[in-house]
Amino acid sequence: MEKTAIVTGANSGMGKATTLALMNQDYHVIMACRNQSRGQSALDEVKKIATSGKASLYLCDLASLKSIKEFSKKIHQDFRSIDLLINNAGVILASRQETAEGFEMQLGVNHIGHFYLTKLILDLLQKNGASRIVNVSSGAHKIGKINFDDIHMLKRYSTFKAYSRSKLANILFTRELAKRLEGTNVTVNTCHPGAVATSMGVNRETGLGKRLLQFLGFFFLTPEQGADTAVYLATSDEFAGISGKYFYKRKPAKISKAASDDQLAEKLWTVTEMMIQPFTNA
Q1: Residues 243, 181: Cα–Cα separation, whole Å
Q2: The one catalytic residue among 27, 163, 232, 248
Q3: Which of 79, 146, 160, 220 is a plausible cystine mate for 197, CB 3.0–4.6 Å?
Q4: Contact present, 245 and 97 (Cβ < 8 Å)
């Protein structure tokens, strides 16, 4: 029986590397990408390189709850079940931007978009014998703080505070979701990929950041190396039944005090539900 996986941000960096690795393990990978042309180029590339498996391109803009809902509808129409969901996509932005619904962009894409997508796809994951969710976080979560009084950083924006806050949210979401999935066939874990040279911080319109990226490539991990732990968590028998954990280099790793706060995890879940509710009832 064909195994099916969804990978967000699959058109570049770790997402594309993850797609290729899963194809080579005979998965049919649903490449969830924001941009049609970049997604198509990535799809053509992995099809040429992969030794097995399949891939399909589906458009999904994590900065738009409407786009996520449309993506989910198409997936439900085309697939009876899903084996893997790898929430890989991420953004890091020098200036404050907003999603279609007015959420601060880094929190909106890195956390809220994946939160909503996961909820919409969960029924398809539950139709299999044993399904897995992997959320790609970062070691940057250790300096992350969540200020619920200014959740969208309207008063004081900082690139790295916004990014680390979103990565903390990834772990809190993982831990709370694992609790809610206890007793089901679905497990969820999260990981730090390491310092990876990807295009995440490059401005696609101006190209700003490309030279820095080329320089960092001499010192940072390749996208393939960065994707290794997420792919291993998603596919290895070693992690069958394990849920709610954080990994680095295929091993369990320590998380910050804030990331281990059960009350904070529950509050973030509740607040996230409240934020998306006005836009998702229709």
Answers
A1: 9
A2: 163
A3: 220
A4: no
Whether 159 contacts 94, CB under 8 Å? yes
CA dihedral defined by 57, 63, 64, 70, rounded to 10 degrees? 20
Active site residue 163: yes
Q: Rounded to whole angstroms, how far apart are CA atoms 269 and 271? A: 6
Residue 232 has a CB neighbour count (10 Å cut-off) of: 17
Tens digit of each residue's pLDDT, the chain (282 residues): 789 999 999 999 899 999 999 999 999 999 999 999 999 999 999 999 999 999 999 999 999 999 999 999 999 999 999 999 999 999 988 899 999 999 999 999 999 999 999 999 999 999 988 999 999 999 999 999 999 999 999 999 999 899 999 999 999 999 999 999 999 999 999 999 866 554 444 344 444 444 444 434 444 667 788 788 999 999 999 999 999 999 999 999 999 999 999 999 999 999 999 999 999 975
Q: Which residues pair with 27 in a beta bridge?
A: 3
Residue 117 backbone dihedrals phi, psi, to 5 degrees: -60, -45
In this structure, are residues 220 and 195 in contact, taking their beta carbons and an 8 Å threshold? yes
Distance from C-alpha of 200 to C-alpha of 216, rounded to nearest angstrom: 13
Cβ atoms within 10 A of the Cβ of 169, count? Answer: 27
Contacts of 1 (CB under 8 A, 6+ apart): none
Q: Which residue has the tokens 């979401």?
A: 173
Helix and strand numbers (H, E) in the chain are 9, 8
* pLDDT of res. 219: 41
CA-nearest of 98, 137, 109 to 34 is 109
Amino acid at 27: Y
Beta bridge partners of 253: none
Decide: 215 and 2 in contact? Cβ < 8 Å.
no
- 3-class DSSP state for residue 126? coil
